[in-house]
Design a protein that fits this description.
single chain, mainly alpha, 3 strands
């Protein structure tokens, strides 16, 4: 006969497994989000994923005759942005179903309250000292040609 603690542990484990299953399902659903945008004349179509990454680009055979390269590039960029907004809305709707009440899925997905997403530089370049006063002289040898234990 199980004790109360054993029953509580069993229930906690069952809750944990249900949460893991729901998380895996949500992850699969988010990965499958796709949004498509098409130009008014139908010559250009883009499909993007949940983070706005281009997944597909379809160009009509005569698109190069009808659009100049700069126009084509602008059309692709504009359609990609439109599709990315749609994909972000779809992803936010999916997340809203599983997030606690009051949690903003747009903020969780990387957006901001004003609807804009700021770009974040993750690898800022270190400042370069160009005065040349303390340049090292590496002309005596190359560490590429030496073994790992014989480096200067």
């Amino acid at each position: 006969m199980p004790t109360d603690h054993q029953a509580q542990v069993a229930e906690l484990l069952a809750d944990y497994q249900r949460s893991r299953d729901r998380l895996a399902e949500t992850h699969r659903d988010l990965a499958a989000v796709t949004a498509t945008a098409r130009s008014g004349d139908g010559r250009v179509q883009v499909a993007v994923g949940p983070r706005g990454a281009l997944r597909e680009l379809v160009l009509a055979d005569d698109v190069y005759e009808k659009l100049r390269p700069a126009q084509l590039a602008a059309t692709i960029a504009e359609l990609s942005a439109q599709a990315a907004q749609d994909a972000a809305r779809r992803a936010a709707d999916l997340l809203a179903e599983v997030l606690p009440a009051g949690t903003d899925p747009d903020l969780l997905l990387g957006g901001h309250a004003d609807g804009e997403s700021a770009s974040v530089l993750r690898n800022d370049a270190a400042p370069v000292d160009d005065d040349g006063a303390e340049d090292e002289d590496f002309s005596a040898g190359s560490w590429l040609q030496q073994g790992p234990t014989k480096r200067m």
